[in-house]
Amino acid sequence: MKTPNLNTIQQNGEYGNLCVATGRAIYEGDAAGTVGPVLKLPAMTQITGFRMVNDALGASTTVAVDAVGEDSSTPVLPATSTASSGNTAYTGKSLLLLDPTELHLILAGGSATGEVECIVEYVYVGA
Questions:
Q1: CA-CA distance, 43 to 99, in Å (whole number)?
Q2: 11 vs 71, higher pLDDT
Q3: Residue 9 above 70 pLDDT?
Q4: For the chain, what is the mean pLDDT?
Q5: DSSP conformation letters of the chain
Q6: In this model, does residue 1 exceed pLDDT 90?
Q7: How many whole angstroms separate alpha carbon 14 and alpha carbon 118?
Q8: What is the distance between the alpha carbons of residues 101 and 45, in angstroms, rounded to a whole number?
Q9: How far is CA 54 from the centre of its chain?
Q10: In angstroms, rounded to a whole number, what is the distance separating the alpha carbons of residues 119 and 90?
Q11: At CA 123, angle to CA 34 and CA 53, rounded to 5?
Q12: At 10, is the pLDDT very low, low, confident or very high (cuts 50, 70, 90)?
């Protein structure tokens, strides 16, 4: 799994501004069980929206998204079928990330080839 734009996002402007960050993963025949970061978010970031846009990755493939911090892991998106191209949104309450956090993609079900883009709407709420 390649993540060509993996980096820590930087908050721009005053506290409380709604921002958007994107992260991409490129699968090149990666096996089920591949787990990797796609985006890094600083501590005290509140995720207000999340979408995953994917290519058709392969028969019976699924991708889940977890927010992985220093001491905890929080599911953001449950395992979602990626056998055909799609656009899946997180529909829960906003998530406050107390620690520096990485969004991890978790591939299951089969080997995958194609791209997944994660689009995160967030507010940096500060310390």
A1: 4
A2: 71
A3: no
A4: 90
A5: -B-TT--B----SSTT-EEEEEEEEEEEEEPTT-EEEEEEE-TTEEEEEEEEEE----TT-EEEEEEE-SS-EEEEEEEEE-SS-EEEE--S--EEE-S-EEEEEEEESS-EEEEEEEEEEEEE---
A6: no
A7: 24
A8: 9
A9: 12
A10: 10
A11: 40
A12: low
Residue 111 backbone phi and psi in degrees, to 5 = -75, 150
Q: Return the closest-CA partner of residue 58 out of 109, 24, 104, 23.
A: 109
By CB neighbour count within 10 A (0-12 exposed, 13-18 middle, 19+ buried), where does 46 fall? middle
Better-scored residue on pLDDT, 4 or 26: 26
pLDDT in tens, 57-115: 999 999 999 999 988 899 999 999 999 999 999 989 999 999 999 999 999 999 999 99
Q: Confirm if 94 and 46 have CB atoms less than 8 A apart.
A: yes
Q: Give CA–CA dist 33/121, Å, rounded.
A: 27
